[in-house]
Structures are given as structure tokens and as C-alpha cells.
Amino acid sequence: MSPSAVAQLPQHDMGLAKIDMKGKGSSNGHTNGVNGVKKPEFLLDRNLHKTFPLVTRGKGNYLQLADGRTIFDATSGAAVSCLGHGNERVIKAINKQLTTGVPYLCSSYWSCDVVEELCKELINGTGGEMSRIYLTGSGSEAMEASIKLARQYFYEGDKNTPRVNIIAREGSYHGNTIGALGVSGHVARRAPYEPFLMKVHRVSACNAYRQRRERESDASFVARKASELEAKFQELGPETVIGFVCEPVVGAALGCVPDVPGYLTAMRAVCHRHGALFILDEVMSGMGRCGTLHAWQAEGAAPDLQTVGKGLGGGYQPIAAVLISDKIVSSLSNGSGQFVHGQTYQAMPIQAAAALEVQKIQREENLIKNVQVQGAYLEKRLKSLLGGHPNVGDIRGKGLFWGLEFVKDKQTKEPFDTKLGVAQRVHDIAIAAPFNMTMYPGTGTVDGIAGDHVIIAPTYIVTREEIDHITKVVAEVVQLVFEKIGDV
């Protein structure tokens, strides 16, 4: 397939006004740079040497750029915009809260109905497995709070508790704050800050593509992982372990690597056998993204603590949460009666109003069913179009959360030289004309430094027709990238 063969993006869903190019697409009259692209002058952005396309409007699955292009958002941003852009119900809910005059309240001495209603919605979504909700502003903050809650759970019963050790996994990513990054196992992201990071003990990831032995069954693979965790408990001393932290489906660090069936149950059993906590990070994979409201529900392996984030508010407000089991709440209630932690912008009414409406829409419109149906079709189309490609080593994921891992050699699974920047090339070509579609690139897939993958994570409102478009573009871009690499 050639780039010219890519179908043009459907326009019927946009509902966007044409850009006034005299104002270069700006809604405030300020110049937005040449050709709708601007190098940041005042913002410390993610890359000081790049220019970025300017977005002026958004609706549904589409973004309008100042250069006149329409971009199909096939990744929901960073797996965030689960309802798409410009949802009128969510915008109305935000505006309604704004009209009360209290978008913010200090949680040290005020309460608010909309905050309580959101928390009730979240608890109901766990089938009563969780007891309380701690609301904050980002996934990193939620993980930071989880680490503290886990430690305080034991501290409440014994101020001299020996439980000081956390076990996490290699090839993991749990956030950017010092505590959350300390738990993370992504080598490259940790590197500049290693002297500051707390000591966390590690076991291997649950990566069947790279770790499964020849003819090894799921049950045998899981048993091996559980034995590894048990050995780590014994090495540290079971009485010293606070808990084990993992992502049911590893997002940014590994590119949508899912747990093997039975893994979560087995790892939880090891933790609970030794009185330690089972902690799940579902910031990226949760809130419907993997085909169940919570990824752990596919297996029924409820955690003691769980973080959620991106799909909670769908990008309409910065919000994340810690879902807390009854035994942890009881420990605090019977002890000091408080969580020794707090942040200025926690449990904000405006955040809660947006997230509550996002969750109501998802539930009322049965969007998780669409995630399941379209996710199965996405898997089928990706594997049909790219399963035989010599440089696509693995296609994996769940629901509407899929990753492609690229390899230099399909037999040996050798990654490409990091200098080639394969994942970034895929992204750069995909987002440019004529493709005009997002793909979420990632590196360090193999060892935290080498290895390339991209993530496809469309909105929960995506249609079958749009899945056809997404997969066609993915296939064409991948083909073009590796043709170019072959010519180098």
C-alpha cells in the first residue's frame, strides 16, 4: 500500500468551524507561528528543540489544527480522552459546577455533594470490593498517596513495624514524582534521578512475548512468576515487606503487555500469605480501557489498593484516584483516624463534576461493551494486516489498548539500534500528511533503554468504520517506515 491509497478522514463527525487563517487559527488573536506550527517560547515543554502542531478545536475522535489539517486521534491523547473531545454533557456538568462559585474547596474543612457522589459511583463500580476513595490530580500523585497509605496501614498497628520494603517489577512505570518514580522500573526515566530515589526491590515483568519458555503453558508461566515473588519475600524477610505493586497491563513502559491469565490471582495470594498488600496501578489500563471497568475484574483479583487516572476524567479535568479496601480504612479508623498526607488540589468539586459525568456517560451508554466489541475487531485487523510483517515482533493488548513491538529480527527478537528512533519515526510519519493520525510511541521496551513500540488506544466511542481506518493507516505507516529504514 502507498500513502496515497490511505482513505481520507471522514468529516461528518467534526462539527467544527473552518479556521480563520488570517488569525492563523488562534481563538485569542495571538499569532500561532508559521504554517500552524510553533516552537514554544515561554512554556518548558517536553522537548526544547521541537516545534509542535497547534490544535484549535476538537470534536469526537478528531482534532483540528491551525494549518487546516484534521487529525484522527487514535490514541485518546495518552490513553486519556476516552469519550473523545468536546463532549457536550461533560462540558455542561463542568459549567454547572462553575456557576456554583465553588470549583475549589479546601478539603481540610469542607465537603461537597458532587465529590461524595463521584466516590459512591467509583465504589459501586468495584462491586463493593473497595471502601473509600482518595481523589487527587494525577496518576503520579495517586501512586505517591498509595505508597504512603501502604506504609501507614502497618504503622497504625505498630509504630516500630519492620515493614519497610516494597516489591515492584522491572519494565514498569508508575509516575514521575520521586516516590512514584522510585517504584517504577523504567531504566531511562529513572536515570537522572537515581541518587534521590528510594530503594525498591524488583522481580521480572509478566511479559509472555519475551519470557515464556518453549511450550510453557499459562499455568506454568504463572507458577514461575509466583515462585519468583515468593523467593523475593524470603530474601527480604516476609515480615519486612509492605506490598507488591504492578500494572495489570503495562502501558507506556512496555507497550500494552497484558498479564497472563491467573497471574494477578497468584501474585495476590503470595502477598496475602505473608500479610503484605497487593497494589495495582490502573492509571492507564483502568476505567474501561481494557474491556472491564477495572482491569482486575476480568480475573476477580481485587487489590488492597488501586490507582486510576486517565480514563477517570477523560481529560476534561486533571483527576486521579486511589481506591482503598476496607481493611486499610479500618486500620486508619481504629488508629490515628487520619491519612498523614494531603494536597492543595485534592477532591476538587470541579474535578469531581467532570469525572462523575464521564463515568455516568460510560455506564449509561454501555460504552464498555463497545470497547469489547471494537477492541476485538481492532485486534483482528492489526494481526491480519501486520502479523506477518518481518519487523512487527508482537501485537498485544486488551480492549482498546493495543501495542506493536518492533524488532530488527523476528526470530531472535533483537531490537533496533536506539539511534534509529524507530517508534518516534512511526509517530512522526503517522501524524503528518497524508496520514494525519496519532500513534503513541515508546522506547525501552526490552531493557528500559533499547526497544521500540507504539500504542493504539482509540476512544470508547470509536466505530467499526473508524477501526478500519486506524488499522489501514497503521499498516501503511509501518510499511513506509521500514522501507525507509531499509534504504538507510
From TrEMBL:
User: Has UniProt tagged this entry with the keyword Amino-acid biosynthesis?
Assistant: no
Q: Does the keyword Glycoprotein apply?
A: no
Q: Which CDD domains match?
A: OAT_like
The entry lists its GO molecular-function terms as: pyridoxal phosphate binding; transaminase activity
Q: Which UniProt keywords apply?
A: Pyridoxal phosphate, Transferase
Q: What GO cellular component entries does it have?
A: cytosol
| The organism's place on the tree of life at top rank | Eukaryota
Fetch the Pfam families from UniProt: Aminotran_3
Query: Which family does this protein fall into?
Result: Belongs to the class-III pyridoxal-phosphate-dependent aminotransferase family.
Its recorded name reads PLP-dependent transferase
